[in-house]
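So, could you explain the following?
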Amino acid sequence: MDVMDWLRRCPLVAILRGVRPDEVEAVGEALVGEGVVILEVPLNSPEPVESVRRLAARLGDRALVGAGTFRREAEVAAVAQAGGRLLVTPHADPALVRAAKARGMVAMPGFLTPAEAFALLDAGADALKLFPAEAGGPAMLRALRAVLPGDVPLLPVGGVDALSLPAWRAAGASGYGCGSALYKPGDAPATVAAKARALLAAL
């Protein structure tokens, strides 16, 4: 499936910053059980590649599993070898996009300006992450929609929660990256599932 197929199943991207390998499978099962099927383990989490490996092995084709906060091509290779199929970055680095696409991964790099967006698309990005989204708000996303190709999935990330989701949706968001609104370090699987239900209800 391409990234839009996954986003049509559920437009939420779960950012599991701080998750540990010994808890990641239960958290992943809780999210998938509520319908959240795109899971990102940021690389500044404890043993992130091991968490990706466990999630990918446990969930298989039921979820699009990968990592975020990439900075180096060696990290792309390590995550791909662990079974990760998604690259997310906080910044605009076309080289990382090309490295991900060379390994058959979905590339969802971060951007803040039209210049960054077009450079990432030229490198092969599948979707674009507007970050930090709260810096510009829905009005910024609406303006970007006017100049970017209409079929490019745009996902605001940063400060996205149940209260702001309707405004982002009205501005043209294709999906939403949710961190603490879905998961905080130490959250029990039942807590994560309840947060997922609240966000889905807001949609």
In short: The domain at 3-202 is CATH 3.20.20.70 (TIM Barrel). The two ends are 23 Å apart (CA to CA).
